[in-house]
Amino acid sequence: MSTDAWATLAFYVISILLVLGALGVVLLPRIVHAALALVFFFLMIAGIYVLLGAEFIAATQVIVYVGAITVLFLFAIMLTHRSYAPDSNPGNSQWIAAGVVSIVTGGILVGVLAQAKLPVSTAATPGGVADVTKTLGQLLMGPYLIPFEIAGLLLLAAMVGAIVIAREM
Q1: CA-to-CA distance for 114 and 155, rounded, in angstroms?
Q2: pLDDT tens digits for 20-29?
């Protein structure tokens, strides 16, 4: 098989696993298992980034989401007293309405994307991956420094809040 055929096969396999991970997050009855399915979901997103040739974004995905955010979720879950109870991730009585809205939204998105004419560029990235990473770093430390710092402060506030809530229990 050619390289394109392997990449296509890898995309479909990762996409199926990604959807299964997302369903696991929503449908698993134990919250700890749902959080572990979230880790799997984030790893599959990183796999999609690798297939797209965005290795830096994939590494950032793994470090930030799989490493930091999921650990934060797991700490919050583990600090609750009912984290291992069989009903720690209860169902919702509005799941039918949510399913209908999801199917309608998905149908609209598929219809819009089927009619859209998306330009595809086959040109290589000038300077390679190192240039893209350098440009991203310059943007994060230049015009987007304030939003980047605000996101860091929000994460810090969430961490402090989680610690305060855990101490009160």
Answers
A1: 38
A2: 999 998 888 8
